[in-house]
Amino acid sequence: MRELLLIAVGAALVNNVVLSQFLGLCPFLGVSKNTKTAAGMGAAVVFVITIASLITGVLYEFVLVPLQLTFLQTIVFILVIAALVQFVEMVLKKISPALYQALGVYLPLITTNCAVLGVALLNVQNEYSVVQGVVNGLGTALGFLIAIVIMAGIRERIEHNDIPTAFRGTPIVLITAGLMAIAFFGFSGML
Amino acid sequence: MNRYVERIYNGIVKENPTFVLMLGMCPTLAVTTSAVNGVGMGLTTTAVLVCSNFVISLFRKVIPDRVRIPAYIVIVASLVTMVQLLLQGYLPDLYETLGLYIPLIVVNCIILGRAESYASKHGPILSALDGVGMGLGFTVGLTSIGIVRELLGSGKILGMTVLPDAVEPISIFVLAPGAFFVLAGLTALQNHFKAPSATNKAEGKKSGCSGQCISCQNALCREDKREGDK
What we know:
The complex is a heterodimer of chains A (191) and B (230).
Chain A: H1 2-14, H2 25-30, H3 35-64, H4 73-95, H5 97-103, H6 107-110, H7 114-125, H8 130-158, H9 170-185
Chain B: H1 3-14, H2 25-30, H3 35-58, H4 68-90, H5 92-98, H6 109-119, H7 124-154, E1 156-157, E2 160-161, H8 176-192, H9 201-204, H10 219-229
Antiparallel strand pairs in B: 1-2
Helix pairs in contact in B: 1-7, 3-4, 3-6, 3-7, 4-5, 4-6, 6-7, 7-8
């Protein structure tokens, strides 16, 4: 139990997926204009990454390893993730239209979010069991959620500030991200 | 200018994926801790890009329109796996340093972006050259960011110490936050000099992804689309 908790905290705060591993930067920079959409995107990512790490973990351990096809992991994982996102979208539409309304727009965008594939591959690389992999996925995704919501909050606050012309738009967002990354360094002594 | 040479010029200068299109930001920030890493990642991506453009262009009349994105992903993923195994076998050092970012070339938006906007519409030779140009442009981008970070962060260029001992290197630049700061400074300079870049709105529409925002993760392009939707 303690080990699982360590994995989750490590993935969420210490090795934050966006700020220290640079995965999922595009949605982080692109969909962080206001807190509401940022939270929606974050929730969708939590949902997809957790399910994706479960399915890729099971597939790897019970199909690829016994058949000695581990070299096919990249191809298998990306296809599974792409299919999974489509599937989740259809299921949500049918079962919970309210949740679909909230997350729907963001789901297709997640297919090529490198964080999803990144987590699946990291789980294999670190030789996590299925349960550890799911916990790692959940932690990573929560880290993404935390980072993108904080980022959106900051962007809302600095929107009307007097920023030098050259730094308006992307540059100031990148600087904000850099400062956040420094702040997240503070967690590195935790484990 | 010969249209073959034009493709290469286009990739390196006119539509440089790092500086002008701002595609593939994840590897750009993650592996540029030194110039050598930048070159390695750039050339690895180039190899995949040239092959994927060539193969996709060969199959462009066979792949049905509705399943083209999954088909492209399968082709790219196979090529990436091959490159990964080759690197593991022949360049184990580079393989160790780049680590996770090699399989992640699959979801690099430059590759799917070029497949979608160029290779699916043009012949194999032109597409392969487009891949060479774009790949070299990406390499140039990564290498120059790598040089800046290596110089500021450890006082070295290509592993050779150039700054005198009296100058303390700013080690934050080789760590994660430094990547954001260097890129921020770069885009700010581009904005200041009004150089064509995806961050300058007027030129921003040319993001090379032809509105295929699902297959491409270019943040700016998606923002344009979202604003259009409202």
